[in-house]
């Protein structure tokens, strides 16, 4: 029976050894999980910091962009206003050249309708570019 006693003692020692190995492995896993948790917490903190910086920079960039857009639009508004004023001046000059009056000088009853005047000379070309035929009265 010595053989059976030795086998049982060996199995008992193996069970005790495996139990100790299992406890060591569990301790290692617990330590690794804690370290991984700390690494994840540090990574999350870094991400929060980076996102905060990016948000700050993004806001500054958007503010600068909006300011530049406002300046550009303001410049365009001024340019359009200048162009409109130039157009008004051109129209007033054309009206004065065409009618001999400025809009501020008032209107007369003799102003033609349709924006065209009749030529002073009876044989002059009309607005269509054709010479008018007139009847001459014989005396």
Shape, please?
A: rod-shaped
> Could you tell me the number of beta strands?
0
Low-confidence stretches: none
β-strand amount: under 5%
Structural class: mainly alpha
Mean pLDDT: 82
Task: Outline the biggest β-sheet.
Answer: none
- Order of helical and strand elements: H
**Using only CA atoms, what is the Rg?**
50 Å
Helix content: over 70%
Q: Give the N-to-C terminal Cα separation.
A: 171 Å
How many helices does DSSP assign? 1
Please characterize this protein's 3D structure.
The protein is mainly α. The protein has a domain of 68 residues. It has one helix and no strands. The chain is rod-shaped and about 165 Å long. The termini are far apart. The mean pLDDT is 82.
